[in-house]
UniProtKB/TrEMBL annotation, chain A:
Coiled-coil regions, chain positions: none
InterPro entries assigned: Fe-transptr_FeoA-like (IPR007167), FeoA (IPR052713), FeoA_core_dom (IPR038157), Transcriptional_repressor_C (IPR008988)
Ferrous iron transporter FeoA-like domain sequence ranges: 1-74
Family annotation (SMART domains): FeoA (SM00899)
Pfam family, one: FeoA
Name of the protein in question: Ferrous iron transport protein FeoA
Single GO molecular function: transition metal ion binding
Keyword annotations: Iron
From TrEMBL, chain B:
Binding site for Mg(2+) 2: A23, G26
Organism name: Thermosulfurimonas dismutans
Recorded topology in the membrane: Multi-pass membrane protein
Protein name listed in UniProt: Ferrous iron transport protein B
Residues passing through the membrane, by range: 284-302, 308-329, 341-369, 389-411, 423-449, 455-475, 513-532, 655-679, 686-706
Length: 76, 716
């Protein structure tokens, strides 16, 4: 599933990043958004977008359209 | 005499890097721009022992990828100018992500010192960092610091000087793993065998890694578009498709390994940021809290500064002007010279001076918001709304400030990270109806719309916002087509900024305005004085160059409903500051004719007394404003204006008056905004484009309004 479809509090792991936008992809990689990395959605902004996620022990915000490029799976 | 060594300071944003640099260099820091771009460059010359040091602060970046101006500047400096040593400031509480940049810095082949900043905070959070182990794992010296208290800062600099110019021994310390290292050496060997001319320009290992990553900028610069058939490179490529991700994973893998071995979490303390975010970013409360914060920001910035604006105005227009007039009289200077000095130069100085308190207050508050971590949250809350019109969440703040004054709004665009967002926001900020336009609205709406004046004025604010949306949409299609923007943004932990940090930053920005923009403002004030007073012997405004110019251009405004020269003349002077439109009209209609100032025969000691008494009063007044709430704007015209009203009613109709107000709102940013914009973006093309686009937009909209109004039978 896409990260944008994950509801807050769910534990997920990144499978891969989309290839569509090279610059976005590189930026995400630089920020530590890598495959295999656990990531949690902390909350959604009051107006419904962007999202706040926690990864590698810090907080990151990204828009839903950017979160669309991040494929994740639920960690059981 | 030893030669000067170059020390570069690099690090992620929000690591206290700026505080670190200030702690080292303090007042010796020179602030400028990197050549050709609007990114701030800070450097200082120091002496450590008998060694001369040139300290260069690189822009804060998370990586050295070529995707933002800041990153390109940082990496070009490291790779092409080859500083003797790099001080890498990292946030000790968030070591893993910070080490990602550290590894890239080490890749450039420069000796690196790891500055473990915010060390006290890490201890408070229960993190135990084994410094020696960290040094061993990274193969570079590590110095713990608390930059806000100045602790460890000197040691860091001395360590840097000690290892400056040494050959960094990275191989064997940080290994990227068997396969990747093999691929890197394959490319290195190939490059060496090829003996390409580019070799001398780049560190070989760095170049090899960038080519493996498929770094577009390096391919362009070197002309090496493809790698040859190398066994390990081929193997990795076929397994992974591309190696950019592999290298990012390898670096992060190393970083997390290092952290696992050298950092121990003793006990998990509750995270203050998490608690604050539960309120500030709350689904339901987030927005109201944000609105309250913005209201407070606006109120503090303008209410707090307004008594000081009045005080400075009194100082320059009163005591200072009178003293100069007295001095010129004593020297028996010719009358035209007195006028040039008093009405041209002093007026220009006055313009700069009265903006000072506003800019200072605003920059102080913005620095506080930025340093505290709330600014990122404000962007988070507002991004949805701003993104629909193609802007960034952070754009909201400069635009909001624009309603008070457009000048600090232009400066406030510095909170934005990408140049695209900065330029776009600064382009639109002057369309927010500022306080200086209000006197024009009050006069005209008062003259024609009576009890509905309030609604009419409100509608003008809306026209400004609408115009900004329209122009924003057009600009994005013309100027920034296809430029990607992201909102991948760190939400840094909340921190209480120190007073010293706030003052240093505020002063830097305020000084920039006075020194840089001030020069242009003064020059323009003098130019306008000549327009008013030349040719020699001209009687009154009508015969001056200003009058002649106005008569020539007046017909241009006929289709907009105000083709008289008086309106045109007030528009010309309105460029100085929009409220001047009112005083020019008053002057032209001969009602509040420029009062003949009495030339003081004695030193104006009384006025200086007033000035000294006035300063404490300004503080009291500022305090009172804070408590009193936003004072309502008086819509009652005073006596002098009342007679001006009747004259205006003869020349304008309600429709043309409304058209005139819309035009005054939009036609050009005032010269102070223009000077600030030019100094911020250093581009004549953009500044010219702003002038032309605003004018075209104003003309088009006003034309449409006026002609439509006429068709609908609102009189013409």
């Amino acid at each position: 599933m896409k990260l944008s479809e994950v509801s807050p509090g769910m534990k997920v792991k990144i499978i891969r990043l989309g290839q569509g936008f090279p610059a976005l992809r590189k930026r995400l990689l630089d920020m530590g958004v890598l495959s295999g990395e656990p990531i949690t959605v902390e909350r959604v902004a009051p107006l419904g977008d962007p999202l706040e996620v926690k990864i590698k022990g810090y907080r990151l915000s990204l828009r839903k359209e950017e979160a669309d490029e991040i494929l994740v799976e639920v960690v059981s | 005499m030893s030669k000067e060594i170059v020390v570069a300071v690099a690090g992620n944003p929000n690591t206290g890097k700026t505080t670190f640099v200030n702690a080292i260099a303090g007042t010796r820091l020179k602030v400028g721009n990197w050549p050709g771009v609007t990114v701030e460059k800070k450097e200082a010359r120091l002496e450590v022992g008998d060694v001369k040091v040139r300290l260069v602060d690189l822009p804060g970046t998370y990586s050295l990828s070529p995707f933002s101006t800041e990153e390109i500047i940082a990496r070009d400096f490291l790779v092409k100018e080859r500083p003797d040593v790099v001080l890498n400031v990292v946030d000790a509480t968030n070591l893993e992500r910070n080490l990602y940049l550290t590894l890239q810095l080490i890749e450039t082949g420069r000796p690196v010192v790891l500055v473990l900043n915010m060390y006290d905070e890490a201890l408070k959070r229960g993190l135990r960092i084994e410094v020696e182990k960290l040094e061993k794992l990274l193969g570079i010296p590590v110095v713990p610091t608390v930059a806000v208290k100045g602790e460890g800062v000197r040691e860091a600099l001395e360590t840097a000087v000690r290892i400056a110019g040494s050959v960094a021994k990275l191989d064997g310390h940080v290994s990227y793993g068997e396969e990747v290292e093999k691929a890197i050496s394959e490319v290195e060997d190939w490059l060496l065998k090829k003996g390409s001319a580019v070799l001398g320009k780049y560190p070989t290992r760095w170049l090899a890694i960038k080519l493996l990553e498929g770094d577009q900028k390096v391919s362009e610069e070197t002309g090496i578009r493809e790698l040859p058939d190398l066994p390990m490179v081929k193997h990795l490529l076929s397994a992974h498709g591309e190696l950019g991700e592999v290298l990012a994973e390898v670096r992060y893998g190393i970083a997390s390994g290092i952290v696992r071995e050298s950092v121990h979490k003793e006990d998990a303390r509750p995270d203050l940021s998490e608690k604050l975010d539960r309120l500030f970013l709350n689904r339901y409360l987030g927005l109201p809290v944000f609105m309250a914060m913005m209201w407070l920001l606006f109120k503090l910035a303008f209410d707090l500064s307004s008594p000081f604006v009045d005080w400075l105005d009194g100082l320059v227009a009163g005591a200072f002007t009178e003293t100069l007039a007295w001095g010129l009289y004593k020297l028996s200077a010719p009358e035209w010279f007195q006028s040039l000095v008093l009405d041209g130069i002093v007026a220009g100085v006055g313009t700069v001076a009265v903006f000072l308190p506003v800019i200072f207050a605003m920059m102080f508050l913005i620095t506080f918001l930025e340093g505290s971590g709330y600014l990122a949250r404000a962007a988070f809350v507002m991004d949805r709304a701003m993104h629909t019109v193609g802007l960034h969440g952070k754009s909201f703040i400069p635009l909001l400030l624009g309603f008070g004054c457009n000048v600090p709004a232009v400066y406030a665009t510095r909170v934005l990270e990408s140049r695209r967002d900065r330029v776009l926001t600064a382009f639109l900020a002057p369309l927010m109806s500022c306080g200086a336009r209000l006197p024009v609205y009050v006069l005209f709406a008062g003259a024609f719309f009576g009890s509905r004046a309030g609604t009419v004025i409100w509608s003008l604010y809306m026209v400004g916002i609408g115009a900004a949306l329209l122009l924003g949409a057009i600009l994005q299609r013309l100027l920034f087509r296809g430029e990607a923007t992201f909102f991948v943004m760190e939400l840094p932990p909340y921190r209480l900024p120190r007073a010293k940090y706030l003052l240093v930053h505020t002063w830097e920005k305020t000084r920039h305005f006075v020194v840089k923009a001030g020069t242009y403002i003064l020059a323009m004030s003098i130019a306008v004085w000549f327009l008013f007073h030349l040719p020699p012997g001209a009687k009154g405004l009508e015969e001056s160059y200003l009058g002649r110019l106005s008569k020539a251009v007046a017909p241009v405004f006929s289709p907009l409903g105000f083709g008289n020269w008086e309106a045109a003349a007030s528009l010309v002077t309105g460029f100085l500051a929009k409220e001047v439109v009112v005083s020019t009209m008053g002057e032209i209609y001969g009602l509040s004719s420029a009062e003949e100032d009495e030339i003081p025969q004695e030193f104006p000691s009384h006025s200086w007394g007033e000035v000294f008494k006035g300063l404490p009063l300004a503080f009291v007044e500022a305090g009172r404003n804070l408590l009193a709430g936003l004072y309502p704007v008086s819509l009652e015209p005073d006596e002098a204006e009342a007679s001006l009203l009747s004259r205006i009613r003869e020349v304008f109709t309600p429709l043309s008056a409304y058209a005139f107000m819309v035009f005054v709102l939009l036609y050009v940013p005032c010269m102070v905004v223009l000077a600030a914009f030019y100094m911020e973006f250093r581009s004549l093309r953009l500044t010219g484009l702003m002038l032309i686009s605003h004018f075209a937009l104003a003309y088009g909209l006003t034309y449409f309004l006026y002609q439509a109004g006429k068709l609908l039978g609102y009189g013409g």
